[in-house]
Write a structure and sequence with these properties.
By secondary structure, the chain is of the alpha+beta class. The protein contains 31 helices and 30 strands. Strands 14-26-25-24-15-22-23 form a seven-stranded mixed β-sheet, sandwiched between helices. A six-stranded antiparallel β-sheet has the order 16-21-20-19-18-17, with helices on both faces. Strands 2-3-1-4 form a four-stranded antiparallel β-sheet, sandwiched between helices. A hairpin with a 3-residue loop joins strand 17 and strand 18. The protein is elongated, with a radius of gyration of 36 Å. About 2% of the residues have low confidence.
Amino acid sequence: MQQYTITGMSCAACSARVEKAVSKVKGVTSCSVSLLTNSMGVEGTALPAEIIAAVEAVGYGASIKGADNAQKNGTSDSERMLEDRETPALKRRLIASLVFLIVLMYISMGHMMWNWPLPSFFDGNHVAMGLVQLLLTVAIMVINQKFFISGFKSLWNKAPNMDTLVALGAGASFVYSTYALFAMTDAQVKGDTQAVMHYMHEFYFESAAMILALITVGKMLEARSKGKTTDALKSLMKLAPKTATLLKNGEEITVPIEQVKKGDIFVVRPGENIPVDGIVLEGSSAVNESALTGESVPADKSEGDEVSAATVNQSGFLRCEASRVGEDTTLSQIIRMVSDAAATKAPIAKVADKVSGVFVPVVIAIALVTTALWLLAGENVGFALARGNSVLVISCPCALGLATPVAIMVGSGVGAKHGILFKTAASLEATGKTQIVVLDKTGTITSGEPKVTDILPADGMSEEELLRLAHSLEKKSEHPLARAILTFAEGRSIAAAEVSDFQAFPGSGLSAKLDGALLEGGNPNFIGSRAEIPVDMKEASENLANEGKTPLFFSRNGKFIGIIAVADVIKEDSPQAVRELQNMGIRVVMLTGDNERTAKAVGRQAGVDEVIAGVLPDGKESVIRRLKESGKVAMVGDGINDAPALTRADIGIAIGAGTDIAIDSADIVLMKSRLIDVPAAIRLSRATLRNIHQNLFWAFIYNVIGIPLAAGVWIPLLGWRLNPMFGAAAMSLSSFCVVSNALRLNFFNIRSPRRDRKIRQTKTKSTEIKESKTMEKTMKIEGMMCGHCSGRVKMCLEALPEVDEAVVSHESGTAVLKLNADVSDDVLKKVVEDQGYKVI
């Protein structure tokens, strides 16, 4: 998406006009204009020059965003784009306007209504009084000339906007008042006192001036509030370090951040910000990553770990190699995601955009009809003009245009502060409508790394002694389950002794000698052939296996000494996240390629509604397609194998610690890699959507009530008459109220389930996957001892083009193959035995 900065827009009618013009350019596939950030996102093959020409043809200015990347006063181009230059300019205009307006109101209202004293030269000289009012009004009109330039320029281009309404309203009052002044001058020359007094009451100079001043007040309040909606984005941009300390030829040199290249070596001392993404080469430290993830607890970093730009080194000295610089850093990607979300349009905004496109011409027509009808009803020109002016100045297309983008911007910012990144406005809107959440198991519900869960020592053996012996035996193994035991033992400060004669039996177990004693460890068949396993221990191991854990058996000198169970444990927050989703009325499904026994055990612990196991990556995509028949589906995953399913789902949610492919395929990225952020994202989406509905209701109802009141519909019935000045005040406040309402989202607690409401579910259909009858073969395999072994066999078999699916079980020692074509037994046998297992 190519982004442009647009100048000259003042209301929703402007953004609609620009969007319509650019969409007509050949080669443009999509165009989205944001009134909030004065930016435009364009996709397609059209040349930038053609797009800029199309914008300029309808009376606005355009330039490629970031075209001038030169640093000015240490401020980036993106920061300058979001800098609030509008509020100070409007404030200066307002102060200057008020100086002249106070004098004007004193003469026109104070003297006329309350007989406040005036200088003696005004005594009986009504023409002088009128002339002073005219000059004061002209001064205010010159100060606020932008309304007239923009308004009449837009009218000339057949694209009237809010400034057109203000210019017509104030201009009509001024022109009629000027006419009344000349008529009064003529009457005074003729000595017609009655006519002089009549025309004196036909002056609307104060209305014209007050309209301009009040609209400026509203614009200033609106600009100030709009500036606050981008605070989250601006705070992210300010995090970017300005310099880096590079290590070159053994010397430390400080350079601007733009000069850092991939592969450069940089150093970071305690208390300093990390300048770019990198990999730690030397040193260890606690790094505060709260700016990116929202996580307050510092993360420990040591040699080989990745660090990110804008995080803070808190304790130790780090020497790192730059891996991602400039626009590629994690911080830059976060800023780009939040910025792109603001530049895109939510589907709900389309209704408001359609109304905004025709709103101003319709209002002008209503004002003309109103003036004509009152004249036909016998009222004088001044009265009819006041009604028409009231219609012009009370109508507000801005509130309609801002209703959606301000809420989207604030919602995206709140999400970014909590480590939840919405890539588009559409994803922020759609997430709250989710009815089914599909969770991948490994790395999403579980931690993705095996951990020790249970230690069952035999009689006469202590836990600590069993761990010491297991640690000593497993230390030389490369198996993932061995690493789990090593990590656990080291965490309890249990040292490993040096063993000799180490031997590994692939798929079965290990053996080694320690102080002359033979230590052995492995699956129940391996140990059972070397030592007698008590019945109660066999039952305990069955129970552990039913819970999705892998029991590892150990013996010493042919005597059974105990069991250590290892499993890919579920994350601490997974059950709570599932409960919160269910309390929202959302059905939770776990989708995994693991065997059914392990999957159901994990599903029970997490509390999901349904478990679908043994599914291949392309099978995951087809399951999502079937689930979508039952309602809106969100898929949560982290691996390459989840990418097709993330793309197929209505909303794809990627765990931040996952692969780049998964993150690229997703609509939402969770920086913290915590499942509890899924209900938080849905909660934030629902709150944002609720806020948009409130804004749209206020914007529509304001105009529905205000325009008839301004037109004088209620005068014959209730005598309600609206002065154009009060109409201008109402118009000013309408946009301010919409923006202020959106800012309330900053105080929304996305973690609290207190206000969660269940959504109405559609009737769900069975998600059972019906496979067509294909050729099946069953293989008997020896040597598989855990889920990792069966996964390895499954992967190598499914790599064959003739194999559609392989259901492998290490418990039963079988592999059931579903074939799409015949394949020889020798080929199958070779593939499995190449992995170190025996086919019988």
